[in-house]
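Batch manifest, entry 17 of 40.
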Amino acid sequence: MLHIEKYGAVDIGSNAIRLLVATVIEEEGKNTLFKKTSLVRVPIRLGADVFLKGEISERNTNRMIDAMNAFSLLMSVHNIKRYKACATSAMREASNGAEIAEIIRKKSGIKINIIDGEDEATIIASTDLKSLIQNDKVFLYVDVGGGSTELTVFANGHKVASHSFKIGTVRLINDMVEDTMWQQMEDWIKLNTKPFKKVSVIGSGGNINSIFKNSGKKSGMPLSYFYLVSFYELIKSYSQEERITEMDMNPDRADVIVPATRIYLSAMKWSGAKNIYVPKIGLSDGIIKSLYNEKLAEQLQA
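Output type: structure tokens
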């Protein structure tokens, strides 16, 4: 007997807003299946407002309201049983973030949870990341967003250290990251990976997913440090317009992919990693898993 439900995850990032609809399939005696049914991405760059002016503009507030109303309708059409909306660094740092979250709740019915970097890392860690982190290997998990980069070191199958740095793609293209912040991230990575002989990187985020797709590699295979270096040199040699017309990139990807690649390369260099794995998971996937875990907890309590 199958039990099938649909869950919704809204990820409000610094570079874009996403709605992931996932079908959760339960069958007695078998592992629960999570299938991505629909993904809608809206390029509302909140970070461009917040990191430069400290608040979300009226224009982007109205765009967010429209997006949330659209997401609410889509979730209704999909007959979503559970959903959660999480906002990261842009809304967290906006002076009017909480105020706008309340306006959106009243106008669309969607409640937005503004989470910190630690919460974000914890939610993502609840995904299929667990199946990739073998007990006999050491991984540096690197999630690059528009406003911040979340780092987590996994060893012996467990998290041993994590930290959030205000180094993100939107901040970088607006020249808002000081050298001291880069140095802090370098020091942290070296300190927390030094005890281990061999470290691999796990990359998360839209940019590394795009790079992996471009590589033509089979799912589960890693990208090498040398491949990433050559890709970085290639995209730097193109103008933003050429990346759109000749490399077939979306306009809101063509500018941020350069600083994103720099962050992944830096993390690999400072940790001594030769390979980066790209499991194509992110905050949205983590939200879906956390919703399912909440359901199980409720059933146990009942």
